[in-house]
């Protein structure tokens, strides 16, 4: 016997994150949300990081010096931070491409058309073109991430 | 503001971010002569001096899109009246602060702030 | 005689059911029962077997046994289903049955639908037009194509499966939910209705259509193929374009044939 949530809400774990026994769009929904939060938090960190590095470009009297920039870049230039950047590339590319799918679906494109009901009641929206578009966009975001890997690790770190 | 107006802006800024983000990523990779070259002191200075205003636009789009997205997620978590109002105002203030802080960086690159 | 081929074979399935009683101490537990399952047996029949043979205090809701009334919605192995429409064969050897999510518990598998039905009422699920009082005995005619625009959404049986599957409802108590929003669209898409602006002001708000992020689980679990995800995306299209079904109202039929015939004869 354990105490129970009488409101019986599924909550964040079962509602937002647990997509694996659900449909494909639910998977994309969870990923869209996670990547959105991730890229959003990275953006705030990036604004802070660039504002720190921008002091390198101030006049010498105001404390500006290329050394600040070079030091920061050599601090960030390792496998740990570049793996983080690669994840940001994957997340932002996926979020952007899936966002296009969502805009199209929300404007009534690629979600099929309404049909009179007849057994076995195959729903239009989750059988429409957006389902295949979603799969294509996931594939495309992985392909672009491979290019990101090439730039960040092979050119950036000289692997 | 009506929720549909905010969402229309969310769509438009989203498309804007897709275009400007592709530009940003291109500058950091093939268009910048490879990642190592693109983040060198000289090339960063020259790129940001010529595209400062484009990056300002990118900043505006990102700030709106991200903080409106955060608001949407946060208001779905808990529904107390005070919490809902606080989330909205917190996001406006945090968005404004992020925008101003980013603008300061761009002004430094453009040479307006010395 | 080779009886074995025709004999009814049974298979023991362990059914783990959620137990809760609000009148006693507020605790919940799972009870496991072994149910002999025959070919063609539904989940509802298994639950009835438990109630009749194993534990009479076990409580659940059902009525029509044929997917019409929408009373027996449950979460089976993590997915919403109507117990009467679910064959035991499709569920495997051990199954877990929980009450529908996002609605308060009453007892065992029975949940409180009142907030769900309140939200349904909120979107004004009836024809709104000004000339109803002027023409109380006239009909508002429709073409078959106009009926097909909304007929599929009118199939909703208010079983609450979409409401339980929706990820936004999982945390957002004020969100109208897929069912209510679909009914808003069902009446907006109706060619006799003139209440688009009224309903748009209700659904185009915080905790309205824009808290739908097109996860599509509502449509995935709907036992009647109503497609709430499609309806909500259509509402978003209307909210952005601010047009669509506005100029559709046909005036009431000028003559009432039946009354004329009655008066002349």
Output the strand order for the largest sheet of chain C.
Answer: 2-1-5-3-4
Q: Quick one: overall form of chain C?
A: elongated
Domains of chain C, number: 2
Largest sheet of chain C: 5 strands, mixed
Distance between the termini of chain A: 56 Å
Note the run of SSEs of chain C as H and E: EEHEEEEEHHHHHHHH
What's the CATH H-level superfamily name of chain A?
Answer: Fumarate reductase/succinate dehydrogenase, transmembrane subunit
Shape annotation of chain A: elongated
| CATH-assigned homologous superfamily of the largest domain in chain C | Alpha-helical ferredoxin
End-to-end distance of chain C = 73 Å
Multimerization status: heterotrimer
Descriptive notes:
The complex is a heterotrimer of chains A (159), B (114) and C (265). Chain A has helices at residues 11-17, 24-54, 66-76, 79-106, 129-155; one strand at 2-3. With 159 residues, chain A is mostly helical. Chain A has a single domain (23-155), classed as Fumarate reductase/succinate dehydrogenase, transmembrane subunit (3 helical TM bundles of succinate and fumarate reductases, Up-down Bundle). In chain A, helix 2 crosses helix 4 and helix 4 (79-106) runs antiparallel to helix 5. The mean pLDDT of chain A is 91. By secondary structure, chain B is an all-alpha fold. Chain B contains 4 helices and no strands. Chain C has 265 residues and is of the alpha+beta class. Chain C contains 9 helices and 7 strands, in the order ββαβββββαααααααα. Chain C has helices at 43-54, 114-122, 144-148, 161-165, 177-188, 196-203, 217-221, 228-241, 257-264, and strands at 10-20, 27-38, 73-76, 79-82, 94-98, 105-107, 110-111. In chain C, strands 2-1-5-3-4 form a 5-stranded mixed beta sheet. A two-stranded antiparallel ribbon of chain C has the order 6-7. In chain C, strand 3 (73-76) and strand 4 form a beta hairpin. The termini of chain C are far apart. The model of chain C has no long low-confidence stretch (mean pLDDT 89). At the A-B interface, helix 2, helix 3, helix 4 and helix 5 of A face helix 1, helix 3 and helix 4 of B. Strand 1 of chain A pairs antiparallel with strand 2 (27-38) of chain C, so a sheet runs across the interface.
């Amino acid at each position: 016997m354990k105490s129970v949530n009488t409101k019986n809400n599924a909550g964040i774990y079962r509602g937002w994150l647990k997509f694996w026994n659900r449909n494909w769009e639910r998977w994309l929904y969870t990923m869209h949300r996670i990547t959105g939060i991730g890229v959003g938090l990275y953006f705030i960190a990036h604004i802070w990081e660039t504002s720190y590095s921008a002091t390198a470009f101030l006049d010498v009297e105001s404390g500006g010096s290329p050394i600040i920039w070079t030091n920061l870049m050599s601090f960030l230039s390792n496998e740990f931070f570049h793996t983080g950047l690669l994840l940001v590339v994957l997340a932002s590319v996926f979020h952007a491409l899936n966002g296009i799918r969502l805009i199209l679906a929300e404007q009534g494109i690629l979600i099929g058309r309404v049909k009179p009901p007849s057994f076995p009641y195959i729903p239009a929206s989750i059988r429409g073109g957006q389902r295949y578009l979603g799969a294509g966009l996931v594939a495309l975001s992985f392909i672009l991430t491979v290019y990101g890997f090439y730039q960040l690790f092979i050119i950036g770190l000289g692997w | 503001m009506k929720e549909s107006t905010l969402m229309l802006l969310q769509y438009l800024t989203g498309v804007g971010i897709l275009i400007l983000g592709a530009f940003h990523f291109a500058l950091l990779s093939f268009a910048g002569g490879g990642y190592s070259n693109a983040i060198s002191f000289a090339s960063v200075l020259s790129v940001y001096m010529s595209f400062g205003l484009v990056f300002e636009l990118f900043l505006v789009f990102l700030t709106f899109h991200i903080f409106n997205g955060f608001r949407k997620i946060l208001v779905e978590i808990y529904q107390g009246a005070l919490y809902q109002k606080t989330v909205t105002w917190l996001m406006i203030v945090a968005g404004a602060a992020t925008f101003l802080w980013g603008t300061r960086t761009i002004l430094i690159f453009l040479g307006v702030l010395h | 005689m080779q009886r074995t081929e025709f004999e009814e074979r049974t298979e023991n399935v362990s059914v783990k059911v959620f137990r809760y009683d609000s009148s006693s101490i507020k605790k919940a537990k799972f009870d496991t029962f072994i149910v002999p399952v025959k070919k063609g047996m539904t989940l509802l029949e298994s639950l009835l077997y438990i109630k009749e043979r194993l534990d009479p205090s076990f409580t659940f809701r059902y009525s029509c046994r044929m997917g019409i009334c929408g009373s027996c919605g449950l979460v089976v192995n993590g997915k919403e289903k109507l117990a009467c429409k679910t064959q035991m064969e499709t569920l495997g050897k051990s199954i877990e049955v929980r009450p529908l999510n996002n609605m308060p518990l009453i007892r065992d598998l029975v949940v409180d639908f009142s907030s769900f039905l309140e939200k349904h009422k909120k979107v004004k699920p009836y024809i709104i037009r000004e000339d109803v009082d002027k023409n109380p005995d006239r009909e508002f005619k429709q073409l078959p194509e106009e009926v097909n625009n909304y007929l599929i959404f009118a199939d909703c049986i208010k079983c609450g499966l979409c409401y339980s599957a929706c990820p936004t409802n999982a945390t957002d108590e004020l969100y109208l939910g897929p069912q209510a929003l679909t009914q808003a669209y069902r009446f907006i898409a109706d060619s006799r209705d003139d209440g688009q602006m009224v309903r748009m002001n209700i659904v185009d708000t915080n905790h309205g259509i824009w808290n739908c992020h097109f996860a599509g689980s509502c449509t995935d679990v709907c036992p009647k193929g109503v497609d709430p995800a499609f309806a909500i995306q259509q509402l978003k299209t209307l909210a952005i374009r601010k047009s669509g079904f506005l100029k559709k109202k046909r005036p009431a039929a000028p003559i009432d044939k039946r009354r004329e015939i009655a008066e002349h004869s």
